[in-house]
Amino acid sequence: MASLSSRQSTPNSVQLGRIRVLKEGFRGSDQAVGPVVYWMFRDQRVRDNWALIHAVDQANKANVPVAVAFNLFDQFLGAKARQLGFMLRGLRQLQISIEETLQIPFFLFQGEAEENIANFLRECGASLLVTDFSPLRQIRRCKDELCKRVSDSVTIHEVDAHNVVPIWVASEKLEHAARTIRGKINKLLSEYLTDFPTLQPPLRKWGATNQTIDWDSLIADVLRKGAEVPEIKWCEPGEAAAMEVLMGSKDGFLTKRLKNYSTDRNNPLKPRALSCLSPYLHFGQISAQRCALEARKIRNVHPQAVDAFLEELIVRRELADNFCFYQLHYDSLKGAWEWARKTLTDHASDKRELIYSKEQLEKAQTHDPLWNASQLEMVHFGKMHGFMRMYWAKKILEWTKGPDEALAISIYLNDKYEIDGRDPNGYVGCMWSICGVHDQGWQERLIFGKIRYMNYAGCKRKFDVEGYVAYIKRLVGEIKKRKAVNDLGRNPKEICS
């Protein structure tokens, strides 16, 4: 598998370096060219989507129609109502948008993607499948299997529509830290951080379809099955909502809140200093490239804030993708650097003053009010402040039987409750905190070995700890009160369903 030989492209198409050929199809001279199908997974948007742009471009060049297919997995890494409800509500808006503005049909499948997508390609006689890029093992294995199942005449292209600089172009190896990848990415930004071409409806239209999607039933089903982790109210799903958070005239990040980003983003008591874009970036409801382009336009007004934002948006995000792409064991101790594995193994049997079970941690039943507050913020709000996520994960290492258990628990809780769980940023965040990934060795101590240490006293020096605990108590109280009011407004049959 390799990217196409040249990175140049025509003005209305995708840079060839952004495309990898997963499978080269072979078509006989007497064999008609079939339609193009875009299997959408990670980048769930119509606007600013390089994979969709490529699919339409290829369809127009071959004078064939194009369709979008999405596969809803029965179970994907423990996602609950919170994550699946957000995703499905966004996809419902996407279907309307893509069918009305571009006349491209949207097909939804449920179950095993390698079977569903292969069957759909066969039924419609497709000649090209375009997919977007994900570094996660499960999706890569699915694509490998799909390559085996489809006809020899089908070509499969993978387009990195998620990163500003395509992951395989930015670096051909596992990077050790932000400092080792930053220069490589920055050198390529002039080539890849460009505006998007205007996407026009495809020249050939797909034939009439009889398929309808019962979104209400689908959403009700995931809400019922995943009711243990209910939806959140502070974050409205969809492309339009994402652009409002980025550019809105009332409370947009770049229009109203950016100026405090560089000074306040590490203060858990000032959550509005953050962009609040992570759910949209995770589900691909907004393009990181669009965010970067808009931020760059106002750099002369807030240079420090924009530079800090672009560092997080591009360098740090793409470093996380690099880790998960080149390190198969991105969520286990096997994926740590050798020095970290050794120091954690050497100290695995160190005596812990306190040990909490997974259940105690999940219920925020520890002696530490600061840690409990961060856990409750994640459980009820669906998002924990970035600074607190570091403290939170490091304390799990301190309070469990060993590093393997600590990492497994932190990933379990993160993926279950965070609206942006099951993401390279989440895996790397846990690996940084517990396994020292993208970090260096520090002074050796019990339990942590040479892994960076954080404690309560250090947090007190950084911000008003008691103020944060009180803030979370109020926040959780308000969420519980709203839920109780909503439950009272529904009939018993609805509550039990």
UniProtKB/TrEMBL annotation:
GO BP field: photoreactive repair; UV protection
Keyword terms of this UniProt record: DNA damage, DNA repair, DNA-binding, FAD, Flavoprotein, Lyase
UniProt keyword annotation of Metal-binding present: no
Photolyase/cryptochrome alpha/beta domain mapped to chain residues: 34-167
Chain coiled-coil ranges: none
Function according to Swiss-Prot or TrEMBL: Involved in repair of UV radiation-induced DNA damage. Catalyzes the light-dependent monomerization (300-600 nm) of cyclobutylpyrimidine dimers (CPDs), which are formed between adjacent bases on the same DNA strand upon exposure to ultraviolet radiation. Required for plant survival in the presence of UV-B light. Not involved in the repair of (6-4) photoproducts.
UniProt protein name: Deoxyribodipyrimidine photo-lyase
